[in-house]
């Protein structure tokens, strides 16, 4: 409905997925200017959308669990597994070659089970795409680990081991925001379960714990992070976002992440302002529960574990989500033969079809050969598999078209826990905003229209809001001055402060030449009005 709030849509989706530990997740959408946003649950869905319906939204992990292995339910761990698997594929999760091989082997074990010489011929691991790029040596290492070390592990066990390993990596939980530092160098800012991170090249150049972050604010395109470290050392980190909207989104993400991970109780959450002046800037307040409360609530869950319909190795332009069956790719792979996995019968044969993790196709081949990426990953332990020269998730992501009318997905038309997600993805920002977010896209068809363009409406709203704030501040200041004037002239308070003011020549002149005549005139007019009312 037009007045339905974001919380209603989110609860509807979590009920659809049979998900109780839902505080880690959120709904993301992209506006017509290609700027990403998190759906705010306290506001109307339609009012947050600047596009015309139908609206395309994406179910994502918003707050990565500090310890994903400690999640209570397997369905929650599976959804987080899908998100991190997607992060790995889209170049967000940097790791050494040995770590990459182990993570990929866990994915392989979770999706196709134990190695079977009769079903898995030589080079079978090369049929799957786990990273933006592979090397033959890496593919052999993946197959070797899968054959020798993971035999007997169930999908749930493999996913749990995957999460435990991913959690140890420096870029676990990174949702990168492209920016530039004061020197004009490209950087990615991110908020993780443990603090604020700045990435340049393929290195983490800054890591600041949440208890060291004292304040975050923004002005236009400029983002400020105030840090208080040991020995009362205070620093301010300054970065420049591509657009004011991107900077505001960065600021809001920072406010939410700090509240979620740092605070003990949601009652401690305060409304934050982007400016020191109360009539200027934006205001935002995190509306959910904090991590500690979520963990305490999860410990109280007592129910039969819900059935999980895991995706087999099926094709998509992103990693798979919860589904009952495979989806076939309409674009064949050009470099290698693809693999078809039958979920009901297991991996019986290798055929010309497709697989679960995304493959390089003829139409998307150039998406993996962006600037800053050269050749295949080296086997050296010091070289990151995802980014050889510079950390740039946008180089590895696939195109992300906004809703195509030929692919209508109604949320309620799917079976619980069994809805295949749209193969569409979010539009990436022109300034390099990573378009890859995580598993499961949905499209909510909501009514909504307007004669004014979205950009015009937003500009008008901002102007009206600024005028109202200025008017409110002016009236408030005048009221305060009036009260002070009345106290000075009419009260009997004889404090040193008032006495000094009253004894000044300027005040005496004002009092006798202006204030007293004005008071007599006002009293006269008031008596005239009262007499008029009595006569009538």
Task: Write a short abstract of this structure.
This protein has 536 residues and is α+β, with helices and mostly antiparallel strands.
Taking all residues together, what is the mean pLDDT? Answer: 75
Q: How many distinct helices?
A: 11
What order do the SSEs take from the amino end to the carboxyl end, as H and E?
Answer: HEEHEHHHHEEEEEEEHEEHEHHH
| CATH class annotation of the domain at 6-167 | Mainly Alpha
- Globally, the shape reads elongated
Question: What fraction strand?
Answer: 5-15%
Distance between the termini: 54 Å
Count of DSSP strands = 13
Helix content: 25-40%
Written account of the structure:
With 536 residues, the protein is α+β, with helices and mostly antiparallel strands. Among the domains are: 6-167, Acyl-CoA Binding Protein, CATH 1.20.80; 175-300, PH-domain like (Roll); 476-535. Helix content is 33%, strand content 13%. It has 11 helices and 13 strands. Strands 2-1-3-13 form a 4-stranded antiparallel β-sheet. A 4-stranded antiparallel β-sheet has the order 4-5-6-7. The protein has a 3-stranded antiparallel β-sheet with strand order 8-9-10, with helices on one face. Strand 6 (195-200) and strand 7 (203-209) form a beta hairpin. Helix 3 packs across helix 6 (155-167) and helix 4 runs antiparallel to helix 6 (155-167). The longest helix has 37 residues, at 454-490. It is elongated and about 110 Å long. It starts with 5 loop residues before the first helix and ends with a helix. The model is unreliable at 313-451 (pLDDT under 50).
